[in-house]
């Protein structure tokens, strides 16, 4: 049976209005609205819809997708984001859930190992320290943040939204935390986004973050403290020039602006010095990017999954066909990884093995 929610998901992924899609298919906007509200199109129209959206016809005849609860999603860059960009990113979340459920049915994946820190959301630096203690991280820099949170059961997927208005978002689905990261950002910014979304997952899952206007600021401060513990940053309190900041930022794999902010927030540099640093870093191109940036972190779990499937003769094309999702959407969700990347990655935790 034709599924109206799937039609809406595919249209949102293509950032089309109902009127725009109706014109492409040759039906009225009213008729298209009926299709999205439970009235099934005839076979010929269903084929035209699939062609107009570049989705397999099979996609529209499966069970309803998991629509993301907008109120339960923590979005970064919400102020700049257009409504169609948000809907497209959320629709990618629905596809990401389907992909991970497909993986979950075939592999033993790590369970979530997060603690409820909602009582500390007004003290995010304390929450960051508590989570580090819970995970036994000490105060040293984290070698690979994405790999770390995946080992703690967080399911991380990528977004290729071709817009800088969407940074990242996260949500809980039952017992499973999800994070989606836009690959349009610099590698350093993406690491900070990862920590920012981690903050939302532990600070705001059990709290009503929608009523807390400080939720984004809290997640930012959590990320800053989680990535750059004060006791470690303390040894670098002598950094006063842009050159020193740029040289030191690689220790924590953060942006130059993020390190300058951290030093200022800890009181190691004055407000005047901080403002001067921002101006100088901006002149050197560090406001809009990270010249001489680091290598981007990608999913270790998904790389290992691809490698394991490859060893059994399964490819990304097989996954796309099984799910009825365009291959390009699968590629966008899995960091555009290839099976050989998984074979080259060393993963001790989590222990990933095929169960079927």
TrEMBL record:
It comes from the Bacteria. Coiled coil: none annotated. PROSITE patterns: HTH_CROC1. SUPFAM superfamilies: lambda repressor-like DNA-binding domains. Residues 7-60 form the HTH cro/C1-type domain. Gene3D superfamilies: 1.10.10.2910, lambda repressor-like DNA-binding domains. Pfam families: HTH_3, Peptidase_M78. One of its GO terms (molecular function) is DNA binding. Belongs to the short-chain fatty acyl-CoA assimilation regulator (ScfR) family. This is ImmA/IrrE family metallo-endopeptidase.
């Amino acid at each position: 049976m034709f599924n109206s929610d799937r039609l809406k998901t595919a249209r949102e992924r293509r950032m089309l209005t109902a009127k725009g899609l109706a014109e492409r298919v040759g039906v009225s906007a009213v008729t298209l609205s009926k299709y999205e509200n439970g009235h099934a199109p005839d076979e010929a129209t269903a084929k035209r819809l699939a062609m107009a959206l570049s989705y397999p016809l099979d996609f529209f005849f499966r069970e309803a997708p998991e629509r993301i609860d907008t109120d339960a999603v923590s979005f970064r860059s919400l102020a700049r984001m257009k409504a169609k960009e948000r809907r497209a990113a959320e629709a990618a979340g629905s596809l990401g859930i389907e992909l991970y459920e497909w993986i979950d049915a075939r592999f033993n994946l790590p369970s979530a190992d997060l603690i409820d820190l909602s009582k500390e959301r007004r003290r995010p630096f304390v929450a960051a320290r508590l989570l580090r203690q819970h995970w036994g991280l000490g105060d040293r820099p984290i070698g690979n943040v994405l790999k770390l949170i995946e080992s703690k059961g967080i399911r991380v997927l990528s977004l290729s939204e071709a817009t800088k208005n969407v940074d990242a978002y996260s949500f809980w689905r039952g017992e499973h935390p999800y994070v989606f990261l836009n690959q349009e950002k610099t590698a350093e910014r993406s690491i900070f986004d990862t920590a920012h979304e981690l903050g939302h997952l532990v600070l705001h899952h059990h709290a009503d973050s929608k009523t807390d206007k400080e939720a984004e600021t809290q997640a930012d401060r959590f990320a800053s403290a989680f990535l750059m513990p004060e006791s470690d940053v303390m040894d670098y309190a002598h950094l006063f020039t842009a050159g020193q900041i740029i040289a030191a930022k690689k220790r924590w794999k953060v942006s130059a602006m993020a390190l300058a902010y951290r030093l200022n927030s800890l009181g190691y540099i004055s407000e005047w010095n901080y403002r001067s640093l921002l101006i100088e870093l901006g002149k050197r191109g560090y406001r809009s990017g990270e010249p001489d940036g680091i290598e981007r972190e990608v999913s270790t779990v998904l790389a290992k999954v691809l490698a394991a499937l490859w060893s059994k003769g399964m490819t990304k094309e097989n996954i796309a066909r099984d799910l009825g999702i365009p291959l390009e959407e699968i590629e966008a969700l899995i960091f555009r990884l290839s099976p050989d990347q998984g074979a080259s990655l060393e993963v001790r935790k989590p222990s990933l093995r095929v169960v079927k």
